[in-house]
Amino acid sequence: MSDSDAAAGRKKPNVPLGCCEGLNNVDYSKMDLIPIEEFIRHINFRDSSFCIAVIAIIFNPLFWNVVARWEHRTRGLSRCFGSPYLACCSLGLVIILLNVLRSHSMTVVMKTQARWEPMERTEVFYFGISLMVLGTLLVVSSFLALGFTGTFLGDYFGLLMDEKVTGFPFNLTENPMYWGSTANYLGLALIGASPVGLVLTAVVALAYKVAIRFEGPFTEQIYQQRNQRRKHQ
Known about the structure:
By secondary structure, this protein is mainly alpha-helical. It has one domain (47-215). 72% of the residues lie in helices and 0% in strands. It starts with a helix and ends with a helix.
């Protein structure tokens, strides 16, 4: 074997045959990036209303997670309102108002920024309608299954449910309230042929994804502690 062959052998990555053939055969220089460029050109990322909408999207789950965990640790809101039920309801009302503000800020951006002609299609419009129907169904059915305190972090206030809800819509997805809300925003963006609406919906989905990573294990821990206390009683 020559030195050049040996060098080539040393440089060859040790990967399964055919693993990267598809990627190696792609000529990225021939990819048509014009649709992506057109999509981005229809979005004004420096618009103050866009920034306000992004802040509202990120702030909401951050706010209710911080406040609810503080309540779970100190019972400060329960002492302030005289009962955990009133405290939970008060936080729930604040969360509702914040969500209304978020929805309003996102709607303002979608209305003021440019529409994108490829999205102005009948099938896109009706797909958006379908997503909003599905999203509303998930949100409403989730609320009915959990009740007000179950929906608005009653677990953190000591208002625990007797058992985990496993019926509809929780047999479809573990977090139907979050993903139903995301579907509503996506449907609204498609109905309005709004590129900035799609971007904001992606931010909503990311914010919810992060919130779930924190809320899920913490809620499980709360119920595990409850079960342990029951065993010792």
